[in-house]
Amino acid sequence: MIINTYQLDKLKENQSNFYLLYGENEGYKNQLIKDILSVGFKDNINRYDESEVINNFDNLITQFTNKSFFEDKKIIIISRATEKINKFFEDIISRNIDDIRIVINAGSLDKKSKLRANFEKKENLICIPFYSDDSLTLGKLANNFFKDKKISISQETINKSFQNVMKSKIFTGIDNFKKSFVYNPRDVSGEEVPTETPKEEPKVDA
To answer: What is the rounded average pLDDT of the residues 103-124?
Structure first.
């Protein structure tokens, strides 16, 4: 099943154990994993690169299907994934394991991708495409960021900040947006764009 980034509220309604995140926007993908998909797993987060999975395929399959491994529910995050991970995914699916959540983080996948097709066609699998940031995407991310930090800021200020962020050839979602300047809640009134670097207070000798 396909869920677009503007439909993420649907994730609350669809409690799947299998997620494919693909596309260029690493910042947005990482935020989704941190803020939504890995919530509730605490220290039970296991991360692998695709190469680790492929090179240790049999051992990992044994580990994942070992009952003792699932004393607490765990999440497996596979990064830098490509079409090669499809074999691993199909093997796990065939075993009907319920106590594990698998998140596959892949780069760009074309329409001929078997991995992408598997996730798009089945209702119990969730496929989320991520594209390069635009003002709409960054706007939603930024508003969530300011709301979480309890910072009052105008849309005009946010838009001006976007202009600095989007000058970069490569930027990764809200992570780059947050790093582009340092916020001081006392100074953010919606009239001034926060400065890019914090000013050091002069030292006063005692």
So the answer is: 93
